[in-house]
């Protein structure tokens, strides 16, 4: 008996017939193109999400301070009486305006800073404050060698209000004095995440305001990069910041530079102030740069101004 064999496929297609399958190499090409397209679209989505979210305001819910004042204290070198003065100054201001204080200890960040100068600790201190108060909108870093001298004015009315900030910012201005070819942008308040001043030599991070958000975390991580900390900058984190502002337009494009006296006036006995950067009565802050290099644990230059501040507090 013979069994019928199944019909065999002819190796030659019938006239008029066309294969519906793409050649193997063509399918591989299309697959590669599809993978690259998905990767590019994903990258564009991430970048658009980053820049849109960085400018999105964080609104502090009821019962949460909109401003956190960050003060880094070296409790191993500063005297207890001096620390008490700084704490009293910050607590009075915070209580008046519903702000929150974050007092950080420099010793808590020794491991993170490593072999770099300990002045770098201000960066993880601000990052720590943001992690502790994630719903707060602004973080105001202020040197322990500075006093808030005008307790009656809020940070909002003095600096953060839209029209006020846009009128104060220095536009098309050398980012590093006196004649850096890199200059500030003309920005709108909604696009600003970092507010800072400069003295006669550099940008000065002893007093700055940082808006909470993705950009703030990116900026602090970039600034604290081990490469910058290991580089022998003469002024450590200050020169690291100068470098970032001049070489990273992504950061500069979200930074407002304001006159020194707005946020960081130097005492009249301090050198290095910018033109019109020395303290005048009515300024929000006075800072004592020479005390950064002091070895006594106190800052004698602060005492007469502390007495003036205390008199204002008692009178209000």
TrEMBL record:
One of the GO biological process terms: protein N-linked glycosylation
GO CC annotations, alphabetized: mannan polymerase complex
Gene3D superfamilies on file: Spore Coat Polysaccharide Biosynthesis Protein SpsA, Chain A
Highest taxon of the lineage: Eukaryota
Keyword Membrane in annotation: yes
Entry keywords, A to Z: Glycosyltransferase, Membrane, Transferase, Transmembrane, Transmembrane helix
Family membership noted in the UniProt record: Belongs to the glycosyltransferase 34 family.
The name this protein goes by in its record: Alpha-1,6-mannosyltransferase subunit
Organism of this sequence: Penicillium cataractarum
């Amino acid at each position: 008996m013979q069994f019928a064999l199944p019909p065999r496929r002819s190796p030659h297609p019938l006239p008029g017939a066309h294969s519906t399958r793409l050649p193997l190499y063509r399918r591989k090409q299309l697959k590669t193109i599809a993978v690259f397209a998905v990767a590019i679209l994903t990258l564009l989505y991430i970048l658009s999400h980053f820049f849109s979210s960085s400018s999105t305001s964080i609104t502090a819910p009821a019962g949460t301070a909109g401003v956190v004042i960050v003060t880094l204290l070296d409790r191993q070198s500063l005297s207890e009486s001096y620390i008490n003065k700084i704490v009293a100054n910050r607590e009075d201001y915070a209580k008046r305006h519903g702000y929150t204080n974050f007092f950080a200890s420099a010793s808590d960040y020794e491991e993170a800073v490593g072999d770099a100068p300990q002045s770098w600790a201000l960066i993880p201190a601000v990052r720590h404050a943001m992690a502790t108060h994630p719903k707060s909108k602004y973080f105001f870093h202020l040197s322990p060698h500075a006093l808030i001298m005008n307790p009656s004015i809020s940070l909002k009315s003095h600096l953060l209000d839209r029209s006020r900030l846009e009128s104060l910012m220095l536009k098309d201005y050398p980012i590093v004095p006196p004649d850096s070819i890199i200059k500030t942008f003309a920005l709108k308040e909604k696009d600003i995440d970092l507010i800072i001043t400069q003295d006669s030599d550099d940008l000065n991070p002893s007093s700055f305001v940082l808006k909470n958000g993705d950009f703030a975390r990116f900026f602090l991580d970039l600034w604290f990069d081990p490469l910058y900390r290991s580089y022998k900058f003469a002024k450590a984190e200050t020169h690291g910041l100068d470098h970032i502002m001049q070489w990273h337009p992504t950061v500069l494009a979200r930074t407002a530079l304001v006159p020194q006296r707005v946020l960081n006036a130097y005492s009249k006995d301090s050198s290095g102030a910018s033109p019109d950067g020395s303290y005048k009565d009515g300024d929000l802050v006075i800072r004592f740069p020479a005390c950064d290099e002091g070895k006594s644990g106190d800052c004698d230059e602060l005492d007469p101004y502390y007495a003036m501040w205390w008199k204002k507090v008692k009178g209000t």
